[in-house]
């Protein structure tokens, strides 16, 4: 069964097509990219998977089911960085990543080690004691990715994870996502970044 699938997924609003009929299937452990010009419907499609944008035709499914964010099982299944992740102004980067990890895995030493590992994988170890206001735009993006990737998920939806990142950081993120995919996580990634597209198992071009 595909982990993430769209069947003729379509969004039309007041006679304007936001998303033309789109079909694809992402198998478990695959990294899948959505490409296309500005306004071609990538974010609209990701929002449809999260239940925040209603389709006018077709269907989108995660592990064979329409996503209902109110269901705890679906919340555990899907992690996303599509809308901005809320951050606390008065907690350090390390405290926040560890808190999110602890909310899913429990407050244990192993959880703290897992959080530290993700912080390290995203090149943020030296910034662990910083507050969000003390981070650059690219560092904030890496922090948002850490908050997204530190929690359990069978499917991860990302909207332009390359935002604000330099070439080395794009490579870092691409390596991490590829490793996670090899461990079984499925990814659907809207992107304009060639390096990410090159690493993908499949690409759907919108528009
Ligand atoms: N609330 C809305 N009302 C009307 N049209 C909208 C609304 N939100 C988005 N759109 C339109 O829907 C289309 C798809 O937008 P979407 O954000 O999905 O594109 P995208 O492929 O993610 O673009 P980008 O590469 O610029 O991020 C665009 O033409 C946009 O103008």
TrEMBL record:
It comes from Streptomyces pacificus. GO terms for molecular function: ATP binding; ATP hydrolysis activity. PROSITE patterns: ABC_TRANSPORTER_1, ABC_TRANSPORTER_2. It holds the Pfam family ABC_tran. This is ATP-binding cassette domain-containing protein. It comes from the Bacteria. Transmembrane segments: none annotated. Residues 4-207 form the ABC transporter domain. Keywords: ATP-binding, Nucleotide-binding. InterPro entries: AAA+_ATPase, ABC_transporter-like_ATP-bd, ABC_transporter-like_CS, P-loop_NTPase. The keyword Nucleotide-binding applies. SUPFAM superfamilies: P-loop containing nucleoside triphosphate hydrolases.
